[in-house]
């Protein structure tokens, strides 16, 4: 399968459509089957106790699937999350970035289903696993 958008085009799209969060994420790797996104962890992502907050990990998972879907369907800003389930499995390592590895399980005309595994850079064990469904806007 070919890609509708490459990594540079996806990041340009994010900067144009979501400037409030675009700088918080970087695409590390993109193939037709998967996408890896880095979230450089900073103080804004931490909760008391010095660990990465759940909402920050949710945002990383959500952005990873969103970008992977767009890489396949093209720049459709109105593709939206319709469901997300996330399991927080262990505390992320302190002071290191998080990486999200996203894969699509199904890409249909109106829905995309994917999964994301998140781990701390340099640590093999996952800190979270998410399953997400996206609604794809109809063609006009």
Structure notes:
The chain has 140 residues and is of the alpha+beta class. It has one domain (7-135): Hotdog Thioesterase (Thiol Ester Dehydrase, Chain A), CATH 3.10.129.10. It has 2 helices and 8 strands. The chain has helices spanning 7-17, 54-73; strands spanning 26-30, 34-39, 46-47, 51-52, 80-88, 98-107, 111-120, 126-135. The strands form 2 sheets. Strands 1-2-6-7-8-5 form a 6-stranded antiparallel β-sheet, with helices on one face. A two-stranded antiparallel sheet has the order 3-4. β7 and β8 form a beta hairpin. The radius of gyration is 14 Å and the shape is globular. The two termini are 23 Å apart.
Briefly say what this structure is.
One of its GO terms (cellular component) is cytosol. Residues 49-122 form the Thioesterase domain. The protein has 140 residues and is an alpha+beta fold.
Features:
single chain; 140 residues; alpha+beta; Thiol Ester Dehydrase, Chain A; six-stranded antiparallel sheet; two-stranded antiparallel ribbon
- Rg of Cα set: 14 Å
Helical residues, percent: 10-25%
Number of helix segments? 2
Looking at the overall shape, the CATH architecture is Roll
Report the strand count. 8
Identify low-pLDDT runs.
none
Order of helices and strands: HEEEEHEEEE
**CATH top level?**
Alpha Beta
In CATH, what is the homologous superfamily? Answer: Hotdog Thioesterase
CA-to-CA gap between the ends? Answer: 23 Å
Rough shape? globular
The largest sheet has its strands arranged as 1-2-6-7-8-5
**Given the helix and strand composition, which structural class is it?**
alpha+beta
Largest sheet: 6 strands, antiparallel
Beta strand %: 35-45%
């Amino acid at each position: 399968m070919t890609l509708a958008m490459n990594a540079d085009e996806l990041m340009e799209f994010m900067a144009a459509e979501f400037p409030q969060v675009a700088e918080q994420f970087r695409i590390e790797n993109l193939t037709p089957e998967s996408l890896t996104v880095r979230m450089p962890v900073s103080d804004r992502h931490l909760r008391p106790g010095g660990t990465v907050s759940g909402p920050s990990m949710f945002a990383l998972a959500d952005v990873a699937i969103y970008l992977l879907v767009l890489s396949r369907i093209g720049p459709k800003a109105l593709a939206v999350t319709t469901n997300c389930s996330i399991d927080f499995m262990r505390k992320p390592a302190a002071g290191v970035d998080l990486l999200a590895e996203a894969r699509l399980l199904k890409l249909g005309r109106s829905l995309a289903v994917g999964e994301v595994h998140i781990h701390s850079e340099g640590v093999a064990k996952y800190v979270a696993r998410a399953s997400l469904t996206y609604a794809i806007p109809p063609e006009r």
